[in-house]
């Protein structure tokens, strides 16, 4: 039986877990905070950005990027804790982010109508380069969500929640994406945040089905971790990257005033046999 332990509880809509150094970083969208937590549950607020979504990525140089979705800006956290503009994304509505080992950053956006509770048109993935330029590199993704880059920096995997699949793209030397393909058809699975392990399998978090699932390329299910609440994102971290950290909360719906039940946000930890690889 899979052992799920609770590292942290009592939060809001928790998302974007990222392991860096010796701590887990994650976002509480409800509070507009990026936090760090150690294995003993001690937390620190490292940035306050009133944004929803509020996702993060670590650059190769060790600085943190934060998507300020409402402002349409990509922020970089400096070593003194200050936030500076890294790239102007132009318009609001951005979601997840991942950086590759070259410093190319991929940010996606969904064209979502919160009143209708649905996407009004397909979303896209944009590339933000270290010089601050931003350009679209993929389109026609019904609802782009979690993203991950393989350890060799050659492949970007993108979760398309509404089409129940994981997409893959080759990453060219200049960051352009090519050779679009369906990496895995997930049946009725609804992928949110994702991460990759050393066997090139993908873990995806699933909010409506309240679980995290490990799948092979092609979609074969290798392992499932059932939960008592929606799983929003997951990452493989810890000293040897052999712990699956999951951000989870009780989902109420996008059209609700509070999308998750207040105080139900948790950070969970699950030991796994295959360690993490790639980014995040």
TrEMBL record:
Residue ranges occupied by any SMP-30/Gluconolactonase/LRE-like region domain in the UniProt entry: 15-250
InterPro entries: 6-blade_b-propeller_TolB-like, SGL, SMP-30, SMP-30/CGR1_Lactonase
Keyword Hydrolase assigned: yes
Signal peptide stretch: none
Keywords of this entry: Hydrolase
Family listed: Belongs to the SMP-30/CGR1 family.
Protein name: SMP-30/gluconolactonase/LRE family protein
């Amino acid at each position: 039986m899979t052992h799920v332990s609770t590292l942290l509880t009592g939060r809001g809509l928790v998302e974007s877990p990222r392991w860096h150094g010796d701590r887990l970083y994650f976002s509480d969208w409800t509070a507009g905070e990026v936090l760090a937590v150690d294995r003993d549950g001690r937390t620190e607020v490292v940035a306050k950005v009133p944004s929803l979504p509020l996702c993060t990525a670590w650059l190769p140089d060790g600085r943190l990027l934060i998507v300020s979705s409402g402002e349409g800006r990509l922020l970089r956290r400096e070593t003194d804790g200050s936030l500076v503009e890294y790239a102007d994304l132009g318009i609001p509505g951005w979601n997840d982010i991942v950086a590759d080992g070259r410093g190319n950053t991929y940010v996606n956006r969904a064209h979502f109508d919160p009143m209708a509770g649905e996407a009004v048109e397909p979303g896209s993935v944009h590339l933000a380069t270290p010089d601050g330029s931003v350009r679209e590199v993929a389109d026609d993704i019904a609802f782009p969500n979690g993203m991950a880059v393989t350890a060799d920096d050659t492949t970007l995997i993108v979760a398309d929640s509404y089409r129940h699949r994981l997409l893959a793209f080759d990453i060219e030397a200049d960051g352009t994406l090519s050779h679009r393909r369906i990496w895995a058809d997930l049946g009725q699975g609804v992928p949110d945040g994702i991460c990759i392990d050393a066997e090139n399998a993908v873990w995806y978090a699933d909010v409506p089905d309240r679980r995290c699932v490990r799948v092979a390329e092609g979609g074969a299910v290798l392992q499932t971790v059932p939960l008592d609440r929606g799983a929003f994102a997951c990452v493989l971290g810890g000293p040897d990257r052999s712990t699956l950290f999951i951000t989870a909360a009780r989902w109420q719906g996008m059209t609700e005033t509070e999308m998750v039940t207040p105080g139900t946000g948790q950070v969970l930890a699950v030991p796994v046999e295959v360690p993490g690889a790639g980014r995040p």
